[in-house]
Amino acid sequence: MAKTKKAPRPKAVTPRGFRDYMGAEVTERTEMLGRIAEVYRLYGFDPLETSAVETVEALGKFLPDVDRPNEGVFAWEENSDWLALRYDLTAPLARVAAQYRNDLPSPYRRYAMGPVWRNEKPGPGRFRQFYQCDADTVGAPSVAADAEICGMLCEALEAAGIERGDYAVRINNRKVLNGVMEVAGILDPADPEAFGRERGIVLRAIDKLDRLGPEGVRLLLGGGRKDESGDFTKGAGLTDEQAAVVMGFVEAGLDRSDAGRAPAAVLARLRDLVGESAEGRAGVDELEHIAELLAAQGFGPDRATIDPSVVRGLGYYTGPVFEAELTFEITGEDGKPRQFGSVAGGGRYDDLVKRFTGQAVPATGISIGVDRLLAALHATGKTKGEADGPVVVTVMDRDRLPAYQAMASELRAAGIRAEVYLGNPKNFGNQLKYADKRGSPVAVIEGEEEAGRGVVQLKDLKLGAKIAASATLEEWKGQPAQREVPRADLVAELGRMLAAHDA
């Protein structure tokens, strides 16, 4: 009789394009999102949690650079319906706004935080699951809502730990770009579908300005561009005259001096570029109003500025668009300095809810890339990428386990993270190794002899590591890493030790 072949053991590997988030990463993200959520709450926004799964029909065809609705998403068929994991937090909001429109206040102001999924080719730093943090206003047609979102984004970045001067919220308007393309002859108000391919290439080209520079954008507006690897990207095929009009728009925002980025100066250049285009003039007027509203709230060009180079890649934007760029330099993979780049983007999308209701519903919002913002905080030293573990109460005597648990309970009641060692207590050295691996700042030690005298030993593991790494013998004698304290003073003394670590 043939032996039954054993099923192979599963491989303990993370699926390609995904990652696991461990201890300190999760803690840091939670704390950062908490600070951002408090800013949103102060502005009157309410939290919303939606299902991770939506119908493909509800998600629509708005995934960047994707033509078919179920390409680029994780989708499956169920009872003749196609379902998919959400690829952003905006499409679910549009569904909620339509589904509960009779119950929600109008305008409806909400924020949402959570993972999204994209079935795309993974790469360095590019994962198929990542976190977003959104805030949106649905039902407010005035650009005052856009200005409020931009001001709130400034405060959210500062609350997260990005200092003023290290970021810029850059604002543009799709209507202005449409006016420029009308002047360039690639947009016909009487036939909005005409020149659609050319406009799509123009949008993507301008969106790559930071990476390709003005000359790279100019090549993509014309015949095309060959990159360093030899791959050729076909351009929009504009004439030199048409390309010059678009490049005038792009270059209107390249002067980053105080005078060059002053709203009045940028708006004057844009008015010249849109000429007689009614849509273009309306877009410039909206930008002017946004700048006035931001200035009234104290958000000057040092925090939020008009910048024509911002276009955003998504096709559903209908008016103002904005992007938060971090302006400090980091060292790239090639060893050269470069700016950190964008960590948030958004804009007005007045037609998204209309897909469900048939009625125009104005909306505007912003989305923060949580992983990128955390990476920026690491780069500036605002977060350490690691956090202290709990205080470990060691077990010197199995029979005294209730006493050790009582110690841990007292510490927790005082707001101090603490745990009792629950492994095999026979080898005390292993207990200290465990505490080191946990990143514990202090270990509590109480054997039979200490218990008899009513004292405990506090071993300062962080100080001990520093002394071992750098201190001289005399310094080591002057800073003992272990001290004896009365049992009654355990909580107070530990609090003082932890406070000294944080100082």
UniProtKB/TrEMBL annotation:
Native source organism of the sequence: Tropicimonas omnivorans
Asked whether the UniProt record includes Nucleotide-binding among its keywords, one would answer yes
Q: Which InterPro entries match?
A: aa-tRNA-synth_II, aa-tRNA-synth_II/BPL/LPL, Anticodon-bd, Anticodon-bd_dom_sf, His-tRNA-ligase, HisRS-like_core, HisRS/HisZ, HisRS_anticodon
Query: Which GO molecular function annotations are given, in alphabetical order?
Result: histidine-tRNA ligase activity
What catalytic activity does the UniProt entry give for this protein?
A: tRNA(His) + L-histidine + ATP = L-histidyl-tRNA(His) + AMP + diphosphate + H(+)
User: What Gene3D superfamilies does the entry give?
Assistant: Anticodon-binding domain (3.40.50.800), Bira Bifunctional Protein, Domain 2 (3.30.930.10)
- Offer one Pfam family short name for this entry: HGTP_anticodon
Please identify the protein, giving its name as recorded. Answer: Histidine--tRNA ligase
Keywords attached to this Swiss-Prot or TrEMBL record, sorted alphabetically, are:
Aminoacyl-tRNA synthetase, ATP-binding, Cytoplasm, Ligase, Nucleotide-binding, Protein biosynthesis
Question: What is the annotated localization of this protein?
Answer: Cytoplasm
Looking at the record, the residues that make up the Aminoacyl-transfer RNA synthetases class-II family profile domain are 16-402
Subunit organization: Homodimer.
UniProt family annotation? Belongs to the class-II aminoacyl-tRNA synthetase family.
Q: What is its main location?
A: cytoplasm
Enzyme Commission numbers on file: 6.1.1.21
